[in-house]
User: Which sequence fits this backbone?
């Protein structure tokens, strides 16, 4: 007699039928990054959109070059250039309505400026002058976030709160590939999906987190695939194709606005320059790789499309360059003016109610400044 026969009456009960809670199929990203430029789909694009994107991309490139030059002249403490990533930056700003909110990272000055923030004010933080430098409420742009991914839970909180209040607001949050390894990324995406918050997450996969390449950052099939684990759609797009990024982001914003919940968009792009002016990229990557990406340049891709459709000629290109040059000249002139600053401002806006330690430090600094003022310029030199 077998053991099972001895137990006689034992009949294992089958477990309840298991079903996936949602079908993961529709959430999966495409196998290849989505492209529009150079395909038949581009022919259907409104020429006004093509022209608007082109003018802003040309300006964006010039802005990056000017800001980097300002670091060399000691007028800017640091600048993380987004050269090569202009398509993502500009498309992100244009995908939003005025009533929406943008949550940028430190690399996203171009998106901030494209949203309407004064080009000088957008650099205040990087000059080290003042806190954010611009009024976040004026253009609905959160401060440029230096701590990686912390802007993501903020975006979810704002978007969810707006929805609870019945306000029609979508938040678009930008983050780098390295930022996707942060706990804040996980928490933000999880909350967003569970609450169906009207948020769009744009990951600019530019290949590197300073010197760390993507292969050392994640073993995921793509960053867009991470969406499936949270229960939101993941979209993979060519981040140098301004039309493709614009279309995917506009679609994701519309979906969020209509109550469809969040989307994770991975834009595959490349950081053509070093991490910042303080980094030497030749120490961790070769020229050949950079050259390959330079041949897939977002400005040139758009230029080719406009030219092919007869929407741009030499004269148009010159006009765009002149417009960008005027913006750069104005930026240069205004950044060369010494900022008038009150050191006591340092203590304002840290807490609603300053802590005893902060008050003590404030009093110490005030006393030092008063003593220095009494001593006059000679005293300062000693
Ligand atoms: C919480 C946190 N950890 C570490 C850093 C230091 N840090 C600054 S930039 C950076 C790399 C980020 O790379 P990625 O997210 O890919 O963005 P990218 O700079 O390429 O735009 C790191 C580790 C930081 N700013 N914040």
Assistant:
């Amino acid at each position: 007699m077998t053991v099972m026969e001895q137990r006689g009456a034992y009949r294992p009960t089958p477990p309840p039928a298991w079903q996936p809670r949602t079908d993961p199929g529709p959430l999966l990203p495409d196998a290849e990054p989505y492209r529009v430029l150079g395909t038949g789909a581009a022919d259907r694009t409104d020429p006004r959109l093509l022209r608007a994107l082109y003018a802003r991309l040309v300006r964006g490139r010039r802005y990056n070059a000017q800001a980097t030059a300002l670091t060399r002249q000691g007028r800017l403490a640091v600048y993380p250039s987004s050269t090569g990533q202009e398509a993502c930056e500009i498309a992100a700003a244009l995908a939003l309505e005025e009533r929406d909110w943008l949550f940028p990272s430190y690399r996203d000055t171009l998106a901030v400026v494209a949203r309407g923030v004064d080009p000088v004010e957008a650099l205040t933080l990087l000059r080290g002058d003042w806190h954010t430098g611009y009024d976040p409420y004026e253009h609905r742009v959160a401060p440029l976030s230096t701590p990686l991914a912390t802007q993501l839970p903020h975006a979810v909180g704002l978007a969810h709160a707006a929805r609870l209040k019945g306000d029609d607001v979508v938040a678009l949050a930008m983050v780098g590939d390295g930022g996707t390894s942060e706990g804040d990324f996980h928490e933000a995406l999880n909350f967003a999906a569970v609450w169906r918050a009207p948020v769009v997450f744009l990951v600019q996969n530019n290949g590197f987190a300073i010197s760390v390449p993507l292969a050392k950052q994640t073993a995921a099939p793509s960053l867009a695939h991470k969406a499936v684990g949270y229960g939101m759609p993941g979209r993979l797009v060519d981040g140098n194709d301004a039309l493709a990024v614009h279309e995917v982001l506009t679609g994701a914003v519309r979906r969020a606005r209509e109550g469809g919940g969040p989307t994770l968009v991975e834009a595959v792009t490349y950081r053509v320059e070093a991490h910042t002016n303080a980094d030497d990229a030749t120490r961790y990557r070769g020229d050949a790789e950079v050259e390959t990406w330079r041949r897939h340049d977002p400005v040139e891709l758009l230029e080719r499309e406009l030219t092919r459709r007869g929407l741009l000629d030499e004269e148009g290109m010159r006009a765009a360059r002149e417009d960008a040059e005027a913006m750069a000249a104005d930026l240069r002139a205004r950044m060369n003016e010494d900022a008038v600053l009150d050191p006591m401002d340092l203590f304002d806006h840290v807490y609603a109610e300053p802590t005893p330690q902060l008050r003590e430090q404030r009093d110490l600094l005030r006393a030092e400044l008063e003593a220095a003022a009494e001593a006059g310029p000679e005293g300062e030199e000693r």
About this structure: Residues 107, 146-148, 176-179, 206, 208-210, 271, 275 surround thiamine diphosphate (CB under 6 Å). The first helix runs from residue 3 to 7. The chain has a mean pLDDT of 94. The beta strands are 101-103, 171-176, 199-205, 208-209, 212-213, 234-238, 263-268.
